[in-house]
């Protein structure tokens, strides 16, 4: 399970992207993180595998503290976290197979990586996973020959080839059309169920978040302002997440967790302008 | 506010700027013309002299063709080895000279310095220097070509490194790969087309350059050409010129083909 | 989940060549060729040792660069000034000659026979190195700056006309047709429909070419075509290595100044 406690990120410019966010993701649940642009969703996910270095707080994956790890230890920890990106981040000029197999890079020697020599098991599994994400027969295509939806499937295949303990998914659908978005979300939740791993998705389409998630978390201005089951995400909650409205006295439905410290500060508009 | 009765294409500052520029150009031309003190009578006799030269050159000395082959091969060797050396050395130099891969500001400046030092000295001057050091021969020529090419290759490769998509590198890092693997998978494929393009383009340029470094004794067909000119063996000169033309055209075709092949 | 068959356990990267045997054959051929090239260089330990000694001697002979002898300084200044003057004149002459050639070599406005003539002139100019052209020019008009100007102008045509022709091929033909529709003659169409569109490019390219011509003007003297190159070769022949270094440093300085000016002016024009 992933357990994040009081995660903070202050950029050297003084921008506070995360002001102490805590979150647990367990079992095989799908957790959607929603919030306006600049709320800190991407920063949160990137701090978990330390593509962005957090400035405070702790991240634990199955009891292993990630934040203090150095070079080799961090690389070993990253092998357990599959990441899927908004812009797919495939190696455009390599084949689909090389992209998928790159998920195993944490396990092969540099020399074998250079020669594109991977274990037979990995290759067999790569074929299997390509079949599973619906890209059978595309292994020798170059990534830049594929459509957006297909590329995102390659990205997913790369992440599952890692045999991760958790999938971190950063805006998987914002470069895709609505129909493809649904197909990608279906695939992600299916994998979570079949492989029995949790998925942390940050997403800005609220309807997709509600439809696919087991739990919804709302971020605003670097703070968690909502956490609860999808049905609890009512207009009041949305208003609070997206427009920073004060919660009317006693109106909060059960399950809603408001950020403990000073909600008044979270009600500023400047967060909307900040890019993650 | 605006006076619609007059129409002017540019603002007054722009016009003054243009006039100053034109004035500088005119003055520079006039002064240069004055300084050169060209004797125009030579210009008058030039066509006659030129035709005379052509007459003495034609027909090319066919019997001499055999003697041209070996220096021609040496020329190609110089171009290829020089380019290969330059490309090898430009890998570290371009990594230093690219803003996103250089370790710190001093290494960046070092990279930039190597690039501009190599570029601002002409290949024939490098050839002179290496002839002094190593004696005349193809080795001096190869090194001259290599050293001159480092700057050119490194500059272009560094530019393509600066333009890579960092997301691809990040994605590889996120799988737990080490930094060398991240470079092999994340950076190399992205700069490979530029790399091969630069190498073949520079090779093409180097074939031309290697035909003339022989003038200062640095090997290749230029040595032959220089000797023939000094002995006024004009028919041999024409043979050599035709051979040079041939090899330049072949290298241009090959280089264009290779660059098309790599996307 | 049940797969219908055992998935393949092997995969190899598709190659740009026809198959992997061809790929290895090509790599082997390249390796053999490089070894052959290196073999032909006759590199021996002996040469490297002598070379190292010579290099140390050369550097000791070069440093410090010679700047104290008055007549040498005069020679240096004279050569540099001549080089720069040659580059200016060659650029002007070359550009003036290039413009008609560029129009000839633009596929969209020139008739086919004219087009091929224009292309031919460009290829002829580009094929031979400036030093070879300079040698021929020296034979035709004698030793001196005139030969250098001729050689550099000739080389300018190939460069300038090629790039300008490409620019002309990219122009907006609508503007040209609009001028033609007013009843303008062919020359007037060029003047009003084409020249204004490519004028910034002409200025930018001229300055760029001037920058290149400065570089070349410093070396054509090696074959007697004027400029600092002759002085450089003399100092080399007379083993006057400290003056040799002074000249090289001066050449680097003048080339860098030229590049700075060219970059600055082109930046301002755009």
Secondary-structure element order of chain A, as H and E?
A: EEEHEEHEHHHHEHEHEEH
Strand content of chain B: under 5%
Return the CATH architecture of the largest domain in chain A: 3-Layer(aba) Sandwich
The helix fraction of chain B, in percent, is over 70%
Class by alpha and beta content of chain B: mainly alpha
The tally of helices of chain A reads 9
Rg of chain B, please?
25 Å
> Helix tally of chain B?
10
Give the strand content of chain A: 15-25%
Note the main sheet of chain B.
none
Enter the CATH topology name of the largest domain in chain A: Rossmann fold
- Which two chains have the most extensive interface, and how many residues on each? B-C, 57 and 60 residues
Mean pLDDT of chain B: 87
Domains of chain B (count): 2
CATH class type of the largest domain in chain A: Alpha Beta
Strand order of the largest sheet of chain A: 6-7-8-3-9-10
Membrane topology (chain C): Multi-pass membrane protein
Keywords (chain C): Cell membrane, Membrane, Transmembrane, Transmembrane helix, Transport
InterPro entries (chain C): MetI-like, MetI-like_sf, PhnE/PtxC
Subcellular location (chain C): Cell membrane
What does this structure look like?
- Chain C: The chain crosses the membrane at residues 21-39, 84-106, 127-154, 243-265.
- The complex is a heterotrimer of chains A (276), B (263) and C (270).
- By secondary structure, chain A is an alpha/beta fold.
- Chain A has nine helices and ten strands.
- In chain A, strands 6-7-8-3-9-10 form a six-stranded mixed β-sheet, sandwiched between helices. Chain A has a four-stranded antiparallel β-sheet with strand order 2-1-4-5, covered by helices on one side.
- In chain A, strand 1 (2-10) and strand 2 (16-25) form a beta hairpin.
- In chain A, helix 5 packs across helix 6 and helix 6 (148-161) packs parallel to helix 7.
- Chain B folds into two domains: 10-41; 68-261, MetI-like fold (Orthogonal Bundle).
- Chain B has 263 residues and is mainly α.
- The model of chain B has no long low-confidence stretch (mean pLDDT 87).
- Chain C has a domain at 73-170 and 199-269: MetI-like (MetI-like fold, Orthogonal Bundle), CATH 1.10.3720.
- Chain C contains ten helices and no strands.
- Chains in contact: A-B, A-C, B-C.
- Chains A and C meet through helix 3 and helix 5 of A and loops of C.
């Amino acid at each position: 399970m992933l357990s994040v406690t009081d995660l903070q990120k202050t950029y050297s410019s003084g921008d506070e992207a995360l002001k102490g966010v805590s979150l647990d993701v367990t079992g095989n649940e799908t957790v959607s993180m929603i919030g306006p642009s600049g709320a800190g969703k991407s920063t949160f996910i990137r701090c978990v595998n330390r593509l962005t270095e957090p400035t405070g707080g702790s991240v634990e994956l199955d009891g292993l503290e990630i934040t203090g790890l150095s070079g080799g230890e961090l690389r070993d920890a990253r092998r357990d976290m599959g990441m899927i990106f908004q812009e797919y981040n495939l190696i455009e000029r390599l084949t689909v197979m090389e992209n998928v197999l790159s998920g195993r890079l944490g396990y092969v020697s540099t020399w074998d990586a250079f020669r594109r020599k991977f274990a037979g098991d990995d290759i067999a599994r790569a074929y299997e996973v390509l079949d599973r994400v619906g890209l059978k027969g595309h292994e020798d295509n170059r990534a830049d020959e594929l459509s957006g939806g297909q590329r995102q499937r390659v990205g997913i295949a790369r992440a599952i080839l890692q045999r991760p303990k958790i999938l971190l998914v950063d805006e998987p659908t914002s470069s895709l059309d609505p129909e493809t978005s649904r197909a990608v979300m279906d695939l992600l939740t299916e994998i979570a169920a079949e492989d029995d791993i949790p998925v942390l998705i940050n997403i800005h389409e609220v309807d997709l978040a509600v439809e696919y998630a087991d739990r919804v978390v709302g971020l605003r201005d670097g703070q968690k302002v909502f956490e609860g089951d999808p049905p609890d995400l009512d207009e009041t909650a949305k208003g609070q997440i997206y427009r920073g409205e004060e919660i009317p006295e006693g109106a909060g439905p059960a399950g809603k967790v408001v950020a403990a410290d000073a909600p008044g500060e979270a009600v500023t508009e400047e967060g909307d302008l900040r890019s993650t | 506010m605006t006076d619609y009765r007059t129409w002017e294409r540019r603002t007054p500052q722009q016009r003054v700027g243009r006039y100053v520029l034109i004035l500088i150009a005119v003055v520079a031309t006039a002064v240069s013309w004055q300084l050169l003190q060209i004797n125009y009578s030579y210009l008058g006799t030039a066509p006659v002299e030129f035709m005379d030269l052509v007459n003495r050159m034609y027909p090319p000395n066919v019997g001499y063709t055999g003697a041209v082959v070996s220096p021609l091969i040496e020329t190609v060797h110089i171009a290829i080895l020089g380019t290969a050396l330059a490309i090898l050395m430009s890998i570290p130099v371009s990594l230093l000279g690219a803003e996103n891969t250089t370790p710190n500001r001093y290494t960046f400046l070092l990279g930039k310095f190597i690039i501009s030092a190599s570029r601002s000295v002409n290949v024939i001057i490098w050839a002179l220097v290496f002839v002094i050091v190593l004696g005349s021969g193809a080795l001096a020529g190869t090194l001259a070509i290599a050293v001159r090419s480092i700057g050119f290759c490194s500059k272009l490769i560094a530019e393509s490194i600066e333009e890579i998509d960092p997301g691809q590198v990040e994605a590889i890092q996120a799988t737990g790969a080490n930094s060398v693997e991240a470079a092999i998978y994340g950076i190399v494929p992205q700069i490979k087309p530029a790399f091969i393009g630069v190498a073949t383009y520079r090779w093409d340029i180097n074939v031309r350059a290697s035909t003339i470094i022989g003038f200062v004794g640095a090997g290749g067909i230029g040595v032959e050409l220089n000797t023939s000119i000094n002995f006024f063996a004009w028919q041999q000169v024409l043979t050599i010129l035709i051979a040079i033309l041939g090899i330049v055209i072949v290298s241009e075709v090959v280089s264009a083909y290779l660059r098309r092949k790599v996307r | 989940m049940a797969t219908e068959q055992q998935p393949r356990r092997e995969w190899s990267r598709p190659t740009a060549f026809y198959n992997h045997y061809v790929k290895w054959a090509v790599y082997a051929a390249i390796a053999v060729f490089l070894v052959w090239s290196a073999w032909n260089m006759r590199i021996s330990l002996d040469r490297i040792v002598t070379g190292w000694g010579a290099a140390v001697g050369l550097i000791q002979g070069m440093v410090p660069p010679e700047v104290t002898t008055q007549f040498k300084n005069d020679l240096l200044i004279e050569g540099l000034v001549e080089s720069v003057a040659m580059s200016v004149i060659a650029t002007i002459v070359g550009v003036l000659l290039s413009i008609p050639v560029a129009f000839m070599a633009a596929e969209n406005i020139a008739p086919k026979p004219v087009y091929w003539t224009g292309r031919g002139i460009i290829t002829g100019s580009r094929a031979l190195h400036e030093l070879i052209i300079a040698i021929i020019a020296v034979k035709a008009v004698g030793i001196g700056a005139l030969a250098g100007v001729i050689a550099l102008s000739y080389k300018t045509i190939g460069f300038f006309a090629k790039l300008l022709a490409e620019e002309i091929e990219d122009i907006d033909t609508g503007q040209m047709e609009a001028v033609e529709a007013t009843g303008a003659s062919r020359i007037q169409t060029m003047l009003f429909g084409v020249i204004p569109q490519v004028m910034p490019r002409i200025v930018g390219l001229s300055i760029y070419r001037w920058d290149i011509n400065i570089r070349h003007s410093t070396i054509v003297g090696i074959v007697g075509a004027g400029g600092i190159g002759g002085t450089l070769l003399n100092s080399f022949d007379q083993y006057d290595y400290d003056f040799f270094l002074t000249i090289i440093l001066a050449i680097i300085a003048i080339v860098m100044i030229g590049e700075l000016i060219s970059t600055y002016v082109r930046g301002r024009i755009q």
